[in-house]
Design brief:
Structural class: mainly beta
Number of strands: 8
CATH architecture: Beta Barrel
Helix content: 10-25%
Shape: globular
Distance between the termini: 47 Å
CATH class: Mainly Beta
Amino acid sequence: MNVSKRAGVALMSFIFLMTLVSAIPVEAKVPLRWEANVSYTFQPEWTGVIVGEDGLSGNIIIDVIDWRLVGEVEFGSLIWRIDWDGGGFIEGTLEGRVSQVLFSFIYNGQVTDASEDWAHLIGRNVHVSGSLDLSFWTAQAIFQIV
C-alpha cells in the first residue's frame, strides 16, 4: 500500500471514529460554586459559613491533616465537610499550597462522601482558591465542584 492510500485509510478511520464518538450521548455535569468565609480555630481547623449563588448555605469545617513549609510556601493536605442548613452533607479531600508572600491559596481534591441528596457528587473534582488575612486569621474562598 502506498503512502497516499495509507493516509486516506487513516483519515477515513479517524472520521469514522469521530462520528461514533460524537454520537454517544454525554451527561453534562454542572459545576457548583460557593463562597466560603472561614476563621482559624487553632485546633488545627478552619470553620465558617459557605453560601451558594442559589442561596444555599451551611457550615464548613476544614481540618489540616498534614502540612510542610518549603521556603515561603506551605503545602498541605486537608479534609473538609459542609453541613447544609436544610440538611445533608458533603465531605472531601484537598491538596494544595498557600503562599506566605501573596497570602493566597489554591487547593484541588475530590468529593469522597455525601448524604443521599448529594451522593451524585461523590468522585467529582473540587477546586478551592482564595486569600488569607492573617491579621485576623480569616480566609475568603471560592469553592467549586466541577
